């Protein structure tokens, strides 16, 4: 049984990676309409109800659908987020169950990001 304790990432930790780390995979698990209304630059929209299916895809299918390379299960910079933190937490736990041992949740979520970024 995988450890079910969700690892979190802070705003400052995430800010240091966004736009700077080529290995960051930032997954926004909000709905498509929420994502369209504003999102963190470089994030990939994979709504919560499709996360398990997305992470089960072959690397080729994942790249074709989302336009980014599918993260490896040991990816160190795999981060999930939503608007308030809850859906990101659910997605992170699901990723852990699927073997993505280093997946982290950004609990401040888009709400905190947009406030701090002034967007």
TrEMBL record:
Residues 20-118 form the Rhodanese domain. Pfam families: Rhodanese. Gene3D superfamilies: Rhodanese-like domain. It comes from the Eukaryota. This is Rhodanese domain-containing protein.
